[in-house]
Structure formats: structure tokens, C-alpha cells
Amino acid sequence: MGRTVATFRDLIEQELQSWKQRFGRALRQEEQVHLEAMFNRVRLYVQACTYHFPVDAMHGIHVAVELDHEIRLRRIEAALGINLETQWMDSRPLSVSRRNDRVADRAEPEAPPAD
Amino acid sequence: MIVWLIEPSQRRRRLIDGSFRPCFYVQGPEGQLARLAEVLPARAAVSCALTERQNIWDRRLLRVLQVSAHHPTLFAPLARFVRRFDSSLTLYDSDLMLAPMYCWEKNIFPLARVEIEVGASGAGPGPNAVRPYNTPPGEIHAITCCDNEWLTEYERPPVRTMRMRLEGLSDVNPKHGRHGAIEVAVENDWQVLDDSDEPTAQVFERLLRVHDPDVLVTEWGDDVLLPGLLRQAQRLHIRLPLNRDALPVERTRSRSYMSYGRILFKESTTTLFGRLHIDTQNSFAAGAGEAETRKSKIETREADTEFRASNFEFRSPAPSLQSPAPGLEGLWELVRVTKLPVQYACRTTPGTGISYMQMEVAWRDGVLIPAQKAEPEGLKHPDELLRADRGGLVFPPRLGFFENVAELDFVSEFPSIMARFNISPETINCPCCPQAPRVPELGYRVCQRHRGITSRVVERLIAKRRRYKEMMRDSGLGVRDSGLGVRDLESEIRNSELEKGGLPQNPHLSSRNPKPESLTPCPETQVRNPEPRAPSPDARIPNPEPRTPNPESLTPNPSACKQRRDVLKWLLVCCFGYTGYKNARFGKIEAHEAINALAREKLLVAKEAAEQRGFRVLHALVDSLYVQKSGAFPLPIDDCRLPIETIDHRQLSSIENRQSKIGNSARADYERLAQEIEQITGLPLALEAVYRFAVFLPSQQSAEIPVPNRFFCVSDEGELKVRGLECRRHDTPPFVTRMQREVLAILAEARDFSTYCDKLHEAREVYERYQERLHDGTVPAEELVIRKRLTKAPASYQKNSSTAIAARQLDRAGVKLRPGENIEFIITDADSSLIDDRVRAWTLWEGWRGYDVEAYGKALAKAFEPAAHFGRQRALFASPDKSG
Hints:
Largest interface: A-B, 19 and 25 residues
Mean pLDDT of chain A: 81
Structural class of chain A: mainly alpha
Number of strands of chain B: 30
CATH architecture of the domain at 161-213 and 215-315 in chain B: 2-Layer Sandwich
CATH class of the domain at 161-213 and 215-315 in chain B: Alpha Beta
Order of helices and strands of chain A: HHHHHH
Distance between the termini of chain A: 58 Å
Number of domains of chain A: 1
Shape of chain A: globular
Distance between the termini of chain B: 82 Å
Radius of gyration of chain A: 20 Å
Structural class of chain B: alpha+beta
Shape of chain B: globular
Low-confidence stretches of chain B: 285-326, 484-518, 520-548, 632-657, 875-884
Number of helices of chain B: 23
Oligomer: heterodimer
Number of strands of chain A: 0
Largest sheet of chain B: 8 strands, antiparallel
Low-confidence stretches of chain A: 101-106
């Protein structure tokens, strides 16, 4: 227990380190924090991962992350008093934010000043 | 075999039993056995005979050569000779200790009441006996036990005790430079022995002669005091009668060893003949005392569980009339049930004790006890290994402050599983039951025809422990471990007695009688004990009816009950752990895995049952559940993800009004839930406590992440339960520990979140007072001592950690430090550019060095943080503007 086979807590840490190495390196600094936070939140469901114990730890981590998103989404809905599900059932297209357009259509950035 | 006895007249007798002929068994080709049977009697006084004994794993009868040594001293050399004679021969029972074997054969145990027929003739006391024990000569003709090790009310040995220690901080190793005179006490009358008038060894020799103690209880006696006194006596040509036999004092060497990734240190030992020497600092393996409790560590196979050697603590203010040696109740209990010699039992792990208990059962069954473990782990597919190699389930707690929380505990869960489901190394995947029911998740079979050795051992321990628990409850003493340390057990008892509340009683618990149960319902008659093959014709169960001169004096007081109960607990914990221990003779990893699988299953069943009945599971930890009744407090200040700001202060006041009404019904609901889970799981479950509130704290690294063992709770009776906070750690200075305990004690007076926040102001005043004292410089240096374990030799440290600096200082001062030892130091100037000035080893510290106010101030702040973590958000409740 924890000697022959690593515990799931250890596996989460191992996977985090492994993903941080390359995947994390290519993220912006402000995004890197979220990567770590996302892996850390898997610990909230570690007992389920331990009980299921998938051969590939990432399977368990994926499900835990998705479950966490689901739970938090529902909480946000509850806090805002909305139900996104019913909106999605609506046949009308979702309104598209203008901000997106602005991003899409924004002018080319100025070229960085030459050194 | 030499047996020391105390007669009813208080005379000490040294007798010899010449009838003891220990034997071992040899298995191999018949030709080789026949040759051995010819060779051995020609070389030594032995008897050889071919016989049949049972193999533990497949229950086959094996033809073996029984070799009986005519004298116990021949036993070990004979076994060595056979091993050298032919290394292909397999030896059984060959490395057992002689004293327990003698006890098994004679049906006695250490400290038992016995009746003895003594013959005046025979070998007599032998040349080694010293006056006055060499007269009259005597040889034991017959020895009969009038006692039973499984009794809970028994006569304690009427021993004369002498205590010895050094002046000063008892936890600090004198070898690290701690100086002080020796203090000796007989009947609590302490006297200081210094060399001013006459040499210490000379005074001690006189005290030994005058008082002639049976038990010598020392602090650091093994490695420092007794060897030092012996050296001085030798220099002065004084004969120091430490032994009652005229044999030299037996000493073993100290050693460092690795266990579960940690390096541990075991002091050398000094054991006596005819007298018992107990070193409270060297009780059990790996001593690592907590700052304020003298306790040792044992290695258990699972988590590094702490064993409080305070079971053997010997600091009771006055000897009780009921118990001649109140601090040694745990030790007496341990040697009674394990039958290990006292001096060995107190220096070894409970695992050895449980192994010998298993071996006794095997020995009485006529089962061969392998000299070394011969059962390797079975081959497994990687998938199977992943499935099997898992421990108990731990649900991370919901973070926050919760009111009206109940703790439901499976009572001795793992041992109960072993007893109830017949899990024992030889019953897992046995060859005799191919159709036996399977262990969930793993599919292992469990024997339905034979009762396992381990199961038989643990069921007796569980029953005895339960009887002690009932006795404690009857006497009104709480049975919980508060987690606040056990330095003052008496005060704990006093508090519990004052509260008068006692623990909630589960009416079903007392009448419970655990019986073996198969994994699926099956007639109990299918599980039966194998026919015992008594090794000696007169082997019999000791007489359960002892002669009891005064039954009232036999009843243990609550403190004794607690010590005995704790010892039994650690035996049970180790019993489970040893099933997975690679060197355990009766270890089998599959049994370990099966127990864990069943524990996971039962915890999940319990969780589901609680949730189905409308309870919310806040936390679950292998064998315990923390549940909250839904509706009792509908908006708990729960979880960092739901910030406290979201709770409306108006809602809070309405909740507070409803609480008192809900509180009463909640306990009944919790009790009903416990009973229902118990029925469903088939394992004993107790409502351990209903807590007014429980505070589950996040990890120190991240405020979002819960950790299983960082919380505190206050029961309805106001009793605190603390886990994982600074006051539980070994390396916290006593000053910080005391502050945190005081703060928690104040918070324990709170009834709900509102009063908790009020009490927090009071607690903060205490905290600030401590900070002031720190800044005033009035804190005694002893209060600031930090204790750490060395993980390597001083020269091997690469970085300049506090431990490394202090270790190097001691090393330079000529102290020989070994990995695993504890050292003590004071932080003098943590940020100093001169590395050596940052900390100072305690024994080298001088007043002018002072202490680092800032560093200790930070430690105080860190220790106060758990109390204030959720409470600081009270301001949000008080002001609607902020919460809005």
C-alpha cells in the first residue's frame, strides 16, 4: 500500500509534474497557476479514484476534473438563479457577444518596436 | 529454567525447573533425518524421535524429526548445528524464545499466580545464585497456574519498585551533555545521589541492598545510568548487586535501522536477572517522545501509528493502594497476554507480542512454526496488483465549521473483520475450500472449514478490550483519546469524572458477542476449530478460576483500565499490520489485502446507509464516519468554495434558534443510524461522540485542499478531539503547544458558530499574552526546546537546516550521534548570517544566547491560525453591508 503501487495521491502529483514539464511550460504564466489548481482539485475526489483505481491514472484524473467542473457549474447556476440546460434546449441560437466580434475583427496589432 | 517467585510471605525465591526440555523439528529426506538422529545424541544431551506435525499452509501432515534438548542452553546451539549439518534441511520451532515456550508447556505466564511443588533435592539453586537467594535450594517438581491471562480483574504482582532518573529535562538524552545528579526513589521518597559525600555507586549499592527492589524503573537507565554506575562501581571495586543472580549484567548494542522509509534508533539495553529493569525512555522500538509526554514509537505495519509508552509512564503522584505499580499496568497486561518476558516485552514492538500469541495457538494445534517466513507473495497480474494493493478508504473532509456532527466508529474494525470473516494467513485461498465465498473486489477465497489462527487470537483480545471499555464506562471515564496528549492522565480522569456525562452508550454494544461469520451467510457450524494436537500430554487450558483473596482489590481503577486497553489496542493494530509484514512468520499479504478490501466495502456500505437516511457524510477515515444530520443546520459554514459571505446573517439567527430543538432529537437519530449500519455491515459500530461542532481545516499549502487529518471537534460534554494540529506534533516547542491547548480549551466552551466567534476574542487575548511573554523574554528556555529526529549522521547533512546545525554543534562537542536519535535545540537567531548562530543545541545553550523572538512568534501565530481560520470571517456576519 503505497510501497509496491503508488497511491493515487502520489499519482496525481506525478501526473502534475509530468504535465507541467512540457504542457505547462508552453502555457502563459497566468495559465500555469490554473493547471496546478486543476490537478489539486482532483484531490477532492481522491477516494473515488482510489476505489476505482484505473490502470491509467489520467483516466481517473479526467473524470474527477470533469465532475468538479460539473459540480461547480451547477453551483454557479444555483447562485445565479439560472439553468443553462433549459437555455440550451431552446431552439433559438444563443446570442453572440459583441466582444467576440471585436476580438475577431480587431485591427492587427502594431508591430513591436525594433530593438 | 530459572523461575523467580514471590511467596505469600513476601519472600523472594529462586527455583530451577529441570524438567523443561525445549524441542524443535527438522524436515528433510528421511535418510538425512535418520543420520541426524544418530549424530545428535552422540554430541549432546538430546532425544530425537520421528513424528508427524501439521504444515500451516496446506494442513498436510509432515514427517519430521523432533529434537528435544535436555537442557535449555543447548537449544540454540543445537539448532545452529543442524543448520550447518545440512543446509537443505528445514527447521521449525527452532528460533523461538525459551521463556514463552516454557510458559506454553507449563500453562503459566509471567506474573501469574502459581502453586509450586518444590523438592529439596536436585540441582538446587545452582552456583550462580547469590545470597540470600541461594537458600533453601529447590527444584520445581510441579507448577500449577491459579490464574488466567484473560481475566480483567486480577491480582497485580506485589513488587517492590525503585525508580531512578537524572535531574532536569527527562526527554533530553544525558549523552548529549545533559548533566545532573541521579535521583532515586523508593515509595515516592526521592533522594538525590551526588558524589559530594560518597560515590554514587556506593550509595546506590547500599540502597539496592537495603530495599532489594524487584523492579527498577529508570529514565535512560539502559544506555546511561546503569552502565555508568557499573563503571564507577568497577573503578571503586564495589560489587553492585544489580542482578540477583551472580551473572554479569546483560547488555545489547544500540542500532539504527530503516522502517517504512524512516530511520529509527534503538538504544542499547541493560537487562537484569532476578530483577526487572524497565527504562521508560527505551520502551518499545524507536523512542521518540513527544515534548510533553514520555512516549515511544513503534513501527506498525500500516500507518506509523503512535504508541504511547505513557502506558508505562511512571509519574503517578502517589501509588494507588489498588495497584502497587500504577504506571506499569499496561506492561503487566502485555506480558500476561503475550507471555513474553517482562524486560523483553517492554523493549520490543507489540508486533512481536502478537506473533508469539499466534505461535502459541499454532504450537497448541501441533502446527509447525517456520523458522523463517517461507510463504512468498503469490503471482499476480498487474491489474490484480493494482486492485489488491490498496489501503482503507479516506474521504477528504468538507472544509468548514460544522455544528451537530456525529462520529461513528467501527470498533476495532480490522481485527473485527479478521475475527468475523475468519481472515487469517492460512485461511485465505486455502486448498480445502475451492467453492468458498469470495472477498469483494479481489475474489480471494476464505476457508470455511477451519478457524484461522489470527482470528482466534484477535477475538480474545477484542473481547478483553471490550470488557475494559465497559468497565471504564461503568466507572464514568470517557474512553476517547482527546489527542491533547496524555501527560496528565489523572487530570483527564478528573475532568471526565467532573463532567459526569460519560459517553453515549450504545445499548447494543455491551450485549454484543462477536461470532465468526462467513463472507456470505453460511451455517456457523461449518467454521470449526481443528482438532488440537497437544504437543505435551498435559497441555491444558489454565484454570480460569483463580484464587482471589479480595475481589474488590482486584478491580482495576479507570486509569489502569485505560492503560490496559491501550496496550490491547496496539496489539490488535499490529496484528492486522503483521499480516502484511514481509518478515512476519504468519504474514501473508493476501490476508492483508482481503482485510483492506472488506474494510473499504464496509465503509462504503456505511456511507450509503447514512446518505440514504438523510445524513450528510462530512468526513470518512478508514473506520470512522463524521456525519451530520441534514436539516440540523441547513447552512453550514461549509467549504471554501462556498464563501462565507453568501450566508445571510438573518438566516443565521433563525438557525441558532432552531438548534436547541434539533440537538436532542439528533442524538437519537445518530444512535439509530449507528445501530442500523451495524446491522447492515455485521461489524460493531459505536456512536463515538456527538460533537457540538467540528472544524475541518484545509492543507497548510493550499486553503482549497482538504486533508484527512487536520481538524478539531468538541463533544457535547465539552471534550476536545484534536488531530494534526501543532499541539499533536513532536517538534512543537512546549510553549507553543501550551498556547494552542489553552486556546482550544477556551474555544471548546463555545456551543455554536456565534459563540465560537465570541470565544475567539477571548482566545486571541491568550494568544496575545503569549506573544507578550515571548517579547518580554520571560519564557523559560525549556519551554522553547524543539525536538527533531536525525535522519542521517551529522556530517552527512548537505543543507543548513536547524537540525543539521544543532547536530553539527553536538558532534563538535564530542557527542556521538547516530541516525534516528532525537536532538533538542533552541532557535537563537534564525536569520543570522553566521550559520552556527541560528540555533543552539539545548545542552550547549547558555542564557546569554537568548532566543529568537520573531521565529517563536511566527510559530505561535501558525499555531493560532487553525482556531481563527474560519472564525475570522465573523465580521461578515456582523455587518450586512459587507456580506451583501
